[in-house]
Design goal:
eight-stranded mixed sheet; alpha+beta; 11 helices; about 400 residues; about 30% helix; single chain
């Protein structure tokens, strides 16, 4: 029998240089010093997509089902993210936030959030209408809750620090176009520039393209990424908002609604809405990639979402094309705002995993196959939870490595 000898370029190869991929590399090298880790990122720098295009909020974990990965990792991750930022001198602040009910129909959902927060171990203060002004003088509502552990930070700076501190070999401008995985030999990955990287174990943290990477590796992930664009405005009168203000979310959707966020630079962002993007990286209506759009339309789950939630989606589309409609949504929380107060800002795209039956995957989704770990659903609060997510993915990757 001929013994095959393979020279591996690394032990673990991570595809994706967002905050989850870089946190995974960071966790692997700390849990198993000496492990050779390489990261391939198709962009020319880290955190160019979901990590760098969000509200910059360190989420408390109040929204998420007790016991879920989102709840456990967000609660733990919020504390760890604050410590990480403090240790490395990254701009951050623990500001707290208000979740405000503006209609009677929202009051039961607000009370349910109080209970959920307590089950998740999160300190919550209930406020009457008159008490809202103690925190936000310009905000109006029937009732609210104040969540003290919510904060803000510079997630791009966090991603850069993870990259610098991981000890991993990181290659930017390295778009993966082919994967050859053989359980008995390992994984060979070809990039667009013709380079071939051989690894013992592959970790897929490709975000907006994670399902495509899974299929390239020979796996059927059982879901598709359906991209939803979130559009933002900057508030021309930032003095109207002191901190973070959120509406009561609709539990049928993983989106939190149009909210007000005073960032670390003291500017106030308003948004996002949630509209279908016409490309995986469709940051505006003018960005259309026919192949990606066709793949979204061919997925049965996309049509089932549309049939099930057309009324909600119609409202989001209206707010996308009508600044007046977007302003009306904001005025539910902040009556003083006018259309002239809203200055267009950069949009983001949420990589939302959707099952064939149209179910929006609510929790983080991590799957394992021979020599491979796929992170298949890690939208918000993944940035908040990136340190514990990275440890969990690292644990699975190192287990795969030990049996390879």
């Amino acid at each position: 029998m001929v013994q095959v000898s393979i020279v591996y370029d690394c032990d673990v190869l991570v595809i994706g240089g967002g905050i989850v991929g870089l946190s995974t590399a960071y966790a692997i090298t700390r849990a198993a010093p000496g492990t050779r880790v390489m990261v391939l990122e198709k962009e020319l720098g880290p955190a160019r997509h979901q990590t760098g295009r969000n509200s910059g909020v360190i989420h408390s974990g109040i929204y998420y089902r007790p016991g879920s990965l989102k709840a456990r990792f967000a609660v733990r991750g919020a504390t760890e993210m604050v410590k990480f930022c403090a240790e490395y001198g990254i701009d951050h602040a623990v500001t707290g936030k208000l979740i405000v009910a503006t209609h009677k129909a929202e009051l039961p959902r607000l009370h349910a959030l109080v209970q959920r927060g307590r089950e998740n171990g999160i300190p919550v203060r209930e406020l009457g209408a008159a008490q809202i002004g103690e925190y936000e003088p310009e905000v109006r509502g029937l009732a609210a809750i104040q969540v003290g552990t919510t904060g803000i930070c510079d997630f791009v700076a966090v991603a850069r620090r993870l990259a610098e501190s991981s000890g991993a070999e990181i290659h930017y401008g390295a778009r993966v176009i082919r994967i050859d995985r053989r359980p008995e030999l390992g994984v060979a990955v070809r990039t667009a520039d013709g380079r071939v990287v051989r690894a013992r174990v592959l970790v897929n943290c490709a975000g907006l393209h994670c399902d495509e990477i899974a299929r390239l590796s020979g796996d059927d992930p059982g879901m598709r990424i359906v991209p939803f664009r979130g559009e933002y405005y900057t508030l021309a009168r930032p003095e109207l908002v002191r901190g973070l203000v959120y509406p009561v979310p609709d539990p049928a959707f993983p989106f939190l609604g149009v909210h007000l966020t005073r960032g670390i630079d003291a500017s106030v962002h308003i948004g996002p809405n949630a509209v279908p993007a016409l490309a995986r990286e469709g940051y505006g209506w003018g960005t259309v990639r026919p192949r990606e759009l066709a793949a979204t339309l061919a997925w049965p789950g996309s049509w089932r979402i549309a049939r099930r939630h057309w009324r909600y989606g119609g409202g989001e589309l209206l707010r996308s094309v009508s600044k007046a409609a977007f302003t009306d949504a904001v005025r539910r929380l902040l009556p003083a705002v006018t259309p002239d107060d809203l200055i267009p800002a950069a949009a983001g795209v949420r990589a939302q995993a959707v099952l064939r039956d149209g179910t929006l995957v609510d929790d983080f989704l991590i799957q394992e196959t021979p020599r491979t770990v796929h992170v298949l659903n890690a939208p918000s609060p993944a940035a908040t939870a990136s340190l514990p997510i990275g440890r969990e993915v690292a644990r699975r990757a190192l287990t795969a490595l030990s049996t390879a």
